[in-house]
Design brief:
Elements (H helix, E strand, L loop, with lengths): L15 E2 L2 E9 L3 E7 L5 E7 L7 H15 L9 E5 L6 E5 L6 H8 L4 H20 L2 E2 L8 E2 L6 E2 L6 E2 L17 H4 L6 H17 L10 H10 L12 H4 L13 H11 L15 H18 L13 H4 L14 H17 L2
Antiparallel strand pairs: 1-2, 2-3, 3-4, 4-6, 5-6, 7-10, 8-9
């Protein structure tokens, strides 16, 4: 199995950001881009920056600075820690720990759904991350399968791009992915810690069934309306997981469990069993194989041996390909030209 898709740097990519030498692109979206990078030594980081043609807009810069400030408040083994940042640079950037692990979305897509015991293990690890975030006053607002990475020692919640601290001005915009968004967030209402619990429940439902907890017909507006009303479709949810997932998906936030309660429930269920944080106990072989592929790829990059590529980022000159020489010009000999003239004359006479 392959690891992360790391694209070569393009002509519009910088070679460095701050002290970090960029190795390749990890992801790119409408507002930003994330690079794999290194600053001396062997440690890898993921460097996030804004995409902008020319000068970065003040609104975008303020939003990015807020994301940096929020992310720097979190210091947990269950998230990706911020190493360094410069939101005031000409091209603002933030460097966080690079976690060489696949997101839950890719694991489900490539390796299938999970048994109940594995879903509970991931629920506990993700709940632990939310306990940490909520403990410092942060609501993530975008908990979804793409934003939970899974190394073998447990989940990591990433991407605080639309998180907000509860002591900051709230926004009424619905910015999360619709199928994993809480009803109140889909209605543009205030997001709370309970909103993250709902999103966790929707994510766990995907792990168990392979789909989001709503009827899908390809219509985004109808899906949004279903989420706003909490019109769930829980067909296929294994009965062993109903007690874990269904309470998280309560329409009323006050009826949802807290992350701490979810964590305590998992520990109670595992009482008497050998304690281990390794996913090898819980996950099926196809899942651990993909996780191992990511981990091995990370070790190769850290050792300066990128899989199938150069050991450093290409320079601007290397990224610019030479224009190939044109094909040779064909020149007819006098004899061939004479034959061509006679053939053309015969065709013209035949057409009269």
């Amino acid at each position: 199995m392959a690891g992360a898709r790391i694209e070569a740097l393009g002509g519009d990519d910088p070679v460095t950001l701050g002290p970090y030498r960029l190795l390749g692109r990890l992801a790119s979206g409408g507002m930003g881009r994330i690079y794999l990078a290194r600053a001396g030594g062997r440690d890898l980081v993921a460097v996030k920056t804004l995409l902008a043609e020319g000068r970065v807009a003040d609104t975008d810069r303020r939003r990015f600075a807020r994301e940096v400030a929020v992310a720097q408040r979190v210091d947990s083994a269950y998230t990706a820690r911020v190493r360094d940042a410069d939101p005031d640079a000409e091209r603002p950037w933030m460097a966080i720990d690079y976690i060489a692990a696949p997101p839950l979305s890719e694991l489900v897509r490539s390796c299938g759904v999970l048994p109940a015991s594995a879903v509970r293990w991931i629920a506990a690890g993700t709940a632990q991350a939310l306990v940490t975030l909520h403990g410092v006053g942060i609501v993530h607002r975008d908990v979804k399968p793409q934003n939970v990475l899974l190394p073998l020692d447990g989940p990591r919640v990433i991407d605080f791009g639309i998180s907000h601290a509860s002591d900051l001005t709230l926004t009424g915009l619905t910015l999360g992915t619709i199928a994993f968004t809480s009803p109140e967030q889909a209605r543009g209402e205030e997001s709370t810690a309970a909103s993250d619990v709902y999103s966790l429940g929707a994510t766990l439902f995907l792990l168990a069934t392979g789909r989001a907890p709503y009827r899908a017909d390809g219509d985004t507006l109808r899906l949004l309306a279903r989420v706003q009303r909490g019109e769930l479709d829980l067909a296929g949810l294994p009965k062993e997981l109903v007690a874990t997932i269904r309470p998280c998906l309560a329409v009323q936030p006050r009826h949802r469990p807290t992350p701490a309660e979810l964590l305590a429930r998992f520990r109670e269920q595992q009482a008497g069993l050998p304690m281990t944080t390794s996913g090898t106990r819980w996950l099926p072989p196809r899942w651990t194989a993909l996780i191992d592929a990511y981990a091995n790829q990370g070790l190769e990059w850290a050792g300066g041996r990128p899989p199938g590529g150069p050991s450093h980022a290409p320079t601007v000159t290397q990224r610019t390909r030479a224009v190939p020489k044109p094909p040779p010009t064909l020149v007819y000999s006098p004899q061939r030209q004479a034959r061509a003239d006679r053939d053309r004359t015969r065709r013209e006479m035949a057409a009269l």
